[in-house]
Amino acid sequence: MRAAKLAGAVGVTVCLLGVGSVALAASTPQGGKIRVFVTTTSNTKSKILITGAIGDYGTAVSQDASGKVDPNGNFEKVTLKQGGFVVNATGLAKKINSVKPTINKANCSVAATATGPGTLGDGTGAYTGISGTVALTVTFAGIAPKTATGCNLSQNAPVFGAYQSITGVGSVSFK
User: Fold this and answer.
1) Strands 109-125 and 102-104, how do they pair?
2) pTM for the full model?
3) Is residue 22 within 8 Å of 34, Cβ to Cβ?
């Protein structure tokens, strides 16, 4: 009988703590410094993790300014467990487009890094009223195909052993 009461009390406590943590998780963050970590999973979709003032994770989808999914879009629709927002990465895109990659013509290895701003807005859920800027850094490396005349660096050429990382550091606030 005593064990049954203890088990019942533990169960109720766990339920109450669970409800309390869900209620806290759904509340609006206070704002402050954040760090962003992105892992690309396809040409339009990525996994995203944000630490600091926002502790959440989910997906990001590349889109154009009107919200249409676009692998060359300069906007990212971020959908996290507690809400979402849009990142306007046109500043980052300009930096990427102007970067000159390092190319080793002897073995066709290529590497490039670009850093530019991403502006956060259009928040939903816990991120309603979000604003802020994140300095996003994209790092890319790979091996281009070697041809009789040199390295094939065309847009459609395959890249071997490709690596990409996207990270960011910035601050957010909420209205």
Assistant:
1) antiparallel
2) 0.81
3) no
- C-alpha 158/C-alpha 100 separation (Å) is 19
- Rounded CA gap, 174 and 127, in Å? 7
- What is the full per-residue pLDDT of the chain (175 aa) written as tens digits? 333 333 343 343 333 333 333 444 456 788 999 999 999 999 999 999 999 999 999 999 999 999 999 999 999 999 999 999 999 999 999 999 999 999 999 999 999 999 999 999 999 999 999 999 999 999 999 999 999 999 999 989 999 999 999 999 999 999 9
Same domain, 54 and 13: no
- Look at the chain and report how many structural domains it folds into: 2
Same-domain status, 16 and 49 = no
Q: How far apart are CA 175 and CA 173, in angstroms?
A: 7
Whether residues 63 and 137 share a domain: the answer is yes
- Within this chain, do residues 15 and 84 fall inside the same structural domain, yes or no? no
61 and 6 housed in the same domain: no
Residues 60 and 11 in one domain: no
Q: Could you give the 3-state DSSP secondary structure of residue 50?
A: strand
Instruction: List the domain range (segments joined by +) for residue 19.
Output: 1-27
